[in-house]
Amino acid sequence: MKAEKTDRKEQVQELTKKLEDGITALFESDRYLEYLTIMARFHHYSYRNTLLILLQCPDATLVAGFHAWKQKFGRHVKKGETGICILAPMAYKYKKESKKQDQEVVILEPESEDTKHTKKAEQSEELEEKSEQRIVGFRVVRVFDVTQTEGKELPQLGVDELTGAVTDYEVLIQALLMVSPMPVSFIEIESGAKGYCNVTKRVIAIQKDMSQLQTVKTMIHEIAHAMLHADNDKVERKDAGTREVEAESIAYVVCQYLGLDTSDYSFAYLIGWSSGRQMPELRASLHTIQTTAADLIDRIEEQISQTNARKRKAESEDSGQEISGVAGDYFEIYQLKENMENRQFYFMDLSFWQSRGVSVEHTRYDVTYTAPLDEKTTLDDIYCRFNIDRPSDFFGHSLSISDVVVLHRKGKTDSYFVDNIGFQPVTDFFKKEPKDVAV
């Protein structure tokens, strides 16, 4: 096992080096210079105008005026498009008139015993003076997003979205759902983002109906955010560029390890978040990227291994092979079935279920373990056993929040939900009493 860990560490380091080399090559390419030339032509708007654009057109990415699109970019605004209103500074000049009158001037010569006199300057006629003043005001102008225009294509780095299928996609998705520190939802994201990690609500959202490769890459990216950037009390908050570079770098390394190439997307994404051609964020975060990627790979592989073991067990049961029974009192461990309906409930406490009006019922679960139960065994004993000294024939995940332990003792069945603190009785876990197991 130690040799395996060492090999994996070396693999991750090699993949990280590949990431550095790929970004450097893109920085030095003609495509990058062409991209910079075009991007330099776009006006950088003030915070106030950026907010105005966001309020009127949340999905806007590149905006310019009507004539700028035509003259600078060879594109024209589509017929019927409504512009986005922003404020443009406008200088005004005006002349201010004022009146000025000469003042009486008294000149004193040095005093002497016989001379002392005062000279009075002549009072001039009233003069009219004109001065030119300049003030800055604002006027409303309209700009248009690139999606409101058509014409010559703009140069791009990389691709907007990854395409392609992923081998054993469902198994990998289930593994990612299990290792994620936060529940994951697949929804329609109105902003156009492919995913986000909300550290306040502690949820991850992924845009639904994307390609398999884009979905996997985005999930790993957001899981990396949840692992590294969710706890602001213990970890000094990093700037946005560093956070994005770390998350995307981890996504690239993990995907490469799994045989999934995201270079076209990840390299361009990372350059977009860098602060310079030397990628200081990447170099400063290499240790974090390598250790987190290795940890995430370990967790994913463990989950895939457990899923495959459960499948083999289910197949053996379906084939009619004899399963060892239990005699007398016994207990069972129930863990949520791996399906879309259950995704939002994985590792969520009982209050989360109740807030959504959902009952904890055995139809949502699979039995992952059954074993004899003696009189002295407690729920805490079972919890410790399936977290610290797990049986070799147990193929589920460590006993965790959202699991259910069912005790069959002296003809009575009691069900307990594993909550964030202790166990909670679930009296309606079985709508109907389960059939007795064969003894």
UniProtKB/TrEMBL annotation:
Residues 109-128 are annotated as: Disordered. The keyword Transferase applies. GO terms for molecular function: methyltransferase activity; single-stranded DNA binding. Residues 197-252 form the IrrE N-terminal-like domain. Residues 12-144 form the N-terminal domain. Coiled coil: none annotated. GO terms for biological process: methylation. Residues 113-123 have a biased composition (Basic and acidic residues). Residues 331-429 form the YodL-like domain. The keyword Transferase applies. Keywords: Methyltransferase, Transferase. This is DNA methylase.
